[in-house]
Amino acid sequence: MKQELLEINGLKLSLWTWGNPKSPPLFFIHGFADSGKNFQWVAENLKNQYFCIAPDLRGHGHSEKGKNPLGYFFYEYIADIHQIFDHYSPNEPVLAIGHSMGGNIVSLYGGACPDRVKAFINIEGLGIRDRSRESAPKVFSNWLHGKANHFKEEYSSISEFAEKMKKRNPYTPLERCHSIAENLLVEKKKDQFVLMVDPLHFLPNPYIYRFENVAPFFRAHKGSILFIESEHTNMDSWMTPLDLDPKDKVDFRIKETERRLSFYPKHQKIIIKNCGHMIHYDLPVELSHEIENFFKANEDHL
Q1: Owning domain of residue 51
Q2: Which of 4, 73, 151, 195 would bridge 202 by S-S if both were Cys, CB 3.0 to 4.6 A apart?
Q3: d(CA 147, CA 228)
Q4: 21 occurs within a structural domain
């Protein structure tokens, strides 16, 4: 694993790479409050076939924080990966993998620039719950007044974070939880560790999310798409209406997942057993096999 630094849209971004730069590039786009470095257990299994490239998104990991005091906006991530793709693959469309928020980023990018994405694997990144138009003034007010929660959490040690993470991710081995914790935390002062994520990421957005505005981007994709879901997904925690009866959440999420996927012109879907949302933490070897199989099966169409 090597670290590279690139100036992207006025910020110095950190990127983690594995493999031979002469091999076909394969891009990994991480989710919220994660790091590109945490794809290492997947990339190690693919580095003989691909040049694996995993950026830390702006304000995450070792990348520079954004300079806007008002926070971060989704289109900035899309503009950043556009430049990253152009840097490493200026003349050829790319192979990309996006996890969670990263899946949303590549979904929008692939709709805006359909000729730049050859094939795409989306790991549980289908957007968040729809908000009503009537909620827009309140949502905007929350942003205006900077109402953010839970971003000041501190940890006394790497082990404390790793143990909490193990409880949230029971399928991730404890030893790997420690390695992930080392990738995600920085020691602010003695015995005080915090996430390497700019707290401004936790500010609410000033706009409401409605999938009807995203669906045209899904429709515009030209490349093959594989959607990967975990057996023990918790997508219903961010995709279902807040006022929905808890007993109806799973059914709603299943139907809403299929509805949103239907907007991709051509896609496949698989479910990986014995893992949760953080599939690249839980089962990196199994995930790398699915990645390799998908791209190989689609070589004739790439």
Answers
A1: 2-130+210-301
A2: 151
A3: 33
A4: yes
